[in-house]
Every structure is written in structure tokens, then in C-alpha cells.
Design goal:
Pfam family, one: EamA
Number of helices: 15
Order of helices and strands: HHHHHHHHHHHHHHH
Number of strands: 0
Keywords: Membrane, Transmembrane, Transmembrane helix
Largest sheet: none
Structural class: mainly alpha
Distance between the termini: 13 Å
Helix content: over 70%
Protein name: EamA family transporter
Radius of gyration: 19 Å
InterPro entries: EamA_dom, EmrE-like
Shape: globular
């Protein structure tokens, strides 16, 4: 199995696990504070991953350039903006719609990467991207829309527009991260990805931490009072991001994000076996479509 595929599958698992744990923090702190803990507690975990990798595989860190730092800053900001837009979409009681349309990120990333990075691939891979995104949309909207007219109506809802904006921001984030890993020198793409993770988490802590200090100073003590659960969220976030970044360093962004749609399968499995919720027929159909799309992506690679 190619390293980028394994890394992407692990990224989906870690992200689902982190999201489940982060639910516990929502009742204890604000949205911004809950986001900061991902980066704040992710920095030492990222450093530990870099140290462990160097210990096992050897090598050395690359000297960063100003262009590299700019790409890192853009990637970190893109993730922050995308997360905030997604949360804003939930405010319109459109959790499913906002989430569904944010998953168009894979298609948006494919187009942006083709234009700016020259990343092209075969027709089969393009079909796979479309199928996997379609399966995700089906999973999110099944039972909520019954016709193409309903789909069109859902698309112009504020929650959908914010979701599309979130997908665009996440796509730009992924492309900036790939550009950053290609900007620094070094023969080991995985090490470059891990180094980039630490730099971006530091910048994100500075950016969103400064905003938190300026607007919600009273929330800062909670970052440290909840250190036990916050540290777990930060660790899982860092591990998930390390896997995403590794995927971006080894393969085109659109392919990584398309395979990353399997995240929704982990969500369904978590719901079925840990929360003991029954799976609907639409869940099974949608899951099979997502898997089929991922297979097409891999065959078209």
C-alpha cells in the first residue's frame, strides 16, 4: 500500500476520534477556545513525532525560507477560516447541509491544484473524486431532500453557502500545505511534512490564540484547567494532521482528499458499534458509493 494511502486512512480515523473527544469540550469552553487547544497541545506532540522520526530514520530538518513560512501561514489560516465558516453554517440549523457541502472540498481542491500547481490525473481519478463526493453528499442529505428541486433549494441556503466556503478554505489550506512541503529542501517527504506540521501548529496557536486573548480573555484559563481532555484532543489532532500532511507531501491534494472521504465511514462505524445506533439503508448505500469512488481514484492514480 502506498504511504500516502495508509497515511490518509489513518488521518480519517484520527480525525473522527478527535471529533468525538472534542464534543466533551464544547460544554466547557467557547468555540474559539476549543479550537485553540487543538493547536496549543498539538505543538509538543508534533515535536515529539519529529524527534521520534529522526531517532528511527535519521536525517535532518530543513532550513525554512520566507516563502515556506508564508505558505505555512496561509495553510494555517485557511484551516482556521474553514473551521469557523463550517461552525457558522451550523448556526442556521443546517448541520447536515453545511457538512455535506464542505465535503465538496475534494472537487474544489482538484480544480485549484490543476490551475495553480499543475496537478493533473486521468479521467478515472476525476470520476472517482466525483463519485466519492457524491456519496458523501448522499449520506449527508438522504432523507432531507427528495428531488433535484430540493437539492437546488438546499444549495442556496446560508448553511450550504457557508459550507461551500468552508470547503474552499480547506482546499486552499491543503494546497498551501503541499506547496510548503515542496518549498523546503530535503529528500525525505515525510520528514518535511512533520516539520511543516509543527510550524503550522505554532503559527495557528499564535494567530487564534491572539484572537482569543483579544476577544475572550476570560476563556484563557480554561485552556489549562481542562488539560487532561484538551491534551487528548491536541494529541489526536496532531496525529491526524501529521497523516494528512504526509499524504499531501507524497500525492496530489485532490487524490488525498478524495480518499479521505472514508472519514465518513469511520463516523458510521463509530455510530454503529460505540453508540449502538442502527444504520439505515441509505447509510449503507452511501458508504458503498464512497468506497467505490475511492477505488476509482486509486485505479486512476
Amino acid at each position: 500500500m502506498p504511504i500516502w494511502v495508509a497515511a490518509t486512512l489513518l488521518a480519517g480515523l484520527f480525525q473522527t476520534w478527535r471529533t468525538a473527544l472534542q464534543q466533551k469540550l464544547r460544554g466547557q469552553m467557547s468555540v474559539n477556545a476549543a479550537a485553540v487547544v487543538r493547536y496549543l497541545y498539538g505543538v509538543p506532540v508534533g515535536m515529539a513525532l519529529v524527534g521520534l522520526y529522526l531517532l528511527v530514520f535519521g536525517g535532518g530538518l530543513s532550513a525554512p525560507s520566507w516563502t515556506y513560512l508564508l505558505f505555512c501561514a496561509l495553510g494555517g489560516l485557511g484551516q482556521i477560516v474553514g473551521t469557523n465558516l463550517l461552525i457558522m453554517s451550523f448556526g442556521y440549523r443546517g448541520f447536515a447541509v453545511g457538512t455535506a457541502y464542505s465535503k465538496t472540498e475534494a472537487v474544489q481542491a482538484a480544480v485549484i491544484a490543476l490551475v495553480f500547481l499543475g496537478e493533473g490525473f486521468g479521467a478515472l481519478a476525476w470520476l472517482g473524486i466525483a463519485v466519492s463526493v457524491g456519496g458523501t453528499l448522499y449520506l449527508s442529505l438522504a432523507g432531507r431532500v427528495t428531488s433535484l428541486r430540493d437539492v437546488a433549494a438546499a444549495t442556496v441556503q446560508p448553511s450550504a453557502l457557508y459550507g461551500l466556503g468552508a470547503g474552499f478554505a480547506f482546499a486552499l489550506c491543503a494546497i498551501a500545505i503541499r506547496a510548503a512541503t515542496q518549498e523546503i529542501e530535503g529528500p525525505d517527504a515525510t520528514l518535511r511534512a512533520l516539520q511543516t506540521l509543527v510550524v503550522i501548529n505554532m503559527l495557528q496557536t499564535l494567530m487564534q490564540g491572539s484572537w482569543l486573548a483579544a476577544t475572550e480573555r476570560q476563556s484563557i484559563p480554561m485552556l489549562f484547567r481542562t488539560w487532561r481532555s484538551s491534551a487528548q484532543v491536541g494529541a489526536l489532532s496532531a496525529c491526524g494532521s501529521a497523516c494528512w500532511f504526509t499524504g499531501f507531501a507524497h500525492a496530489p491534494v485532490a487524490l488525498v482528499r478524495a480518499v479521505g472521504q472514508v472519514e465518513i465511514l469511520f463516523t458510521l462505524l463509530f455510530s454503529r458499534f460505540f453508540l449502538k445506533e442502527r444504520m439505515k439503508r441509505t447509510d449503507v448505500v452511501g458508504a458503498l458509493v464512497v468506497v467505490g469512488g475511492v477505488v476509482l481514484v486509486l485505479l486512476g492514480r
